[in-house]
Design a protein that fits this description.
The chain has 231 residues and is of the alpha/beta class. The protein is built from eight helices and seven strands, in the order βαβαβααβαβαβαβα. The chain has helices at 16-26, 49-57, 75-82, 89-100, 125-132, 146-159, 178-191, 208-214, and strands spanning 3-9, 32-40, 61-69, 105-109, 136-140, 164-172, 195-200. The chain has a seven-stranded parallel β-sheet, sandwiched between helices. Helix 6 (146-159) runs parallel beside helix 7 (178-191). The protein is globular and about 50 Å long.
Amino acid sequence: MSMILVVSGTGTEIGKTVVTAAVAAVARGRRVAVLKPAQTGLAPGEPGDAAEVARLAGSHVTAVELARFPEPLAPATAARRAGLVPVRPFEVAEAAEKLATEHDLVLVEGAGGLLVRFDDEGGTLADAARLLSAPVLLVAPAGLGTLNATALTAEALANRGLSCRGVVIGSMPAEPDLASRCNIEDLPVAAGAPLLGAVPAGAGSLSGAAFAARAPGWLAPELGGTWAATR
């Protein structure tokens, strides 16, 4: 049976793409699709987040991008400023469901945080997840300040009747400070969901082969890896 998993975060530039790639990499042997509903901040022809996931995870990944807007802004704002039609939550859901008929796992990677607007009517990634009845994997930073943002996002998920699959730290420092070490224990409490991995800082700079080989060690068994939390 095909599975759809929405990957969101507590903010932007926190490692959603590398976490998505890690989940895709450990699913080697299955047909995986990565759907990026709205790519912002890139010109036509430049490789986007979905293409980066495919580069890191392997040739078993199909990369799909629904819309692209050139300025590095929230999708609704970027679409409006470019004079382009925004992507709508129902379009995201329809695209994911279509991919699910041909793939074993569909990963939908959001832009920014959970409630960043796709359109001027207020449609968000949360709305797409609700239409899909899909669980959400939450990506969070490691350090100071992450607990509040994680708790707020988890509360937004719960208020919408959405399931939080768990939390993955998107960029774990090689030498974590005190806050980062303590957050390994505290993040699951803030999220009300298990901590399911920690991707090391700089993982996105690895070659595809090295990334795919190491990815299982970054994710918990619930996501197909071998990672276990330590302080």
